[in-house]
Amino acid sequence: MKQKNRYKLSSGLRPRIDPRVMPVTGELPQQRLDRGLSLVGTRGEQYVEYRKIPVAIAHDADVRFDPDWNGRPAVIAPMRGENDELCSVHGRYLHQTGNQDKMFTIGPGGGILSVGDGLHANPVIIVEGLFDALSLAVCGYSSIATVGRLAPWLPGVCKGKQVILAFDGNNPGESQTNFYKEYLIDANIHRVTPPGHCKDWNTALVKRGHHVIEQWLNTNILHRKKDNVIVS
Asked: Of 72, 78, 115, 204, whose CB neighbour count within 10 A is largest?
């Protein structure tokens, strides 16, 4: 109950409720993930490379292509729980117009997207979106992405660990940062934003290139880790 109260009081954030199955077809998350295609040779490969993510890095993160993700082509990725069980499947559409959503997720929730070593990395880096996590992977850093969903087991896993909150460099990103500072109250928290005036890590990668991001991350993460001065 205490954890839930903190969540309600934090910056107006609320958990997102996704459909448990794919609309119309009724397929479960595992069924849809199994239907996902390898990115190679698909529009999904073109899309991730357009966003400066090598297809090999996306493949290693189990990113797949679905040509009909609730009616539109998307790249999809699994969101897993504390014991690596599949909780949800998250999709990022290749394009959107007008009021169309950029993303669509199915499943009961409670998981995170993991790229690289994810929660086993030191420090644990938490970002907002799939492409933020993939962008950090291009620069040699593992991370997890919340995509605005809540994993109730995360505070226990992060207890006593060094955690970098690397959410977007805007007001919503600061709101998420404030929430996670409370939610992960037993972790050693430090905040790192994307460099310059870039809103998120993928924007920074596309505009500035991976060498600039690597230097920024090394300065703000590796040096602090070496000096053991990661603080909130």
From this structure: 115
Helix (H, G, I), strand (E, B) or coil at 98: coil
Taking alpha carbons only, the member of 105, 101, 42 closest to residue 78 is: 105
Write the single-letter amino acid at 7: Y
Q: Which stretches within the chain are classed as H helix?
A: 2-9, 29-35, 43-50, 55-60, 130-138, 154-158, 171-183, 201-208, 210-217, 223-227
User: Quick check: pTM over 0.85?
Assistant: yes
Question: What letter does residue 218 receive in the DSSP assignment?
Answer: I
> Which residue, chain included where needed, has tokens 């990103």?
173
Nearest alpha-carbon partner for 108 in 19, 6, 190: 19
Give 183's contacts (C-beta < 8 A, 6+ positions apart): 3, 6, 7, 10, 154, 155
Residues 106-119 pLDDT 10s: 999 999 999 999 99
* CA dist., res. 56 & res. 65, Å (int): 14
Site of tokens 């950090």: 136
Q: Using alpha carbons, list the distances in angstroms from residue 149 to 55, 180, 188, 208, 219.
A: 25, 12, 21, 29, 29
The type of residue at 8 is K
* Nearest Cα residue to 132 out of 121, 141, 123, 119: 141
Residue 224 has, within 13 A of its CA and on its CB side, a CA count of 20
pLDDT digits over 74-100, tens only?
Answer: 999 999 999 999 999 999 999 999 999
How many angstroms separate the CA atoms of 67 and 74, rounded? 6
Residue 153 DSSP class: T
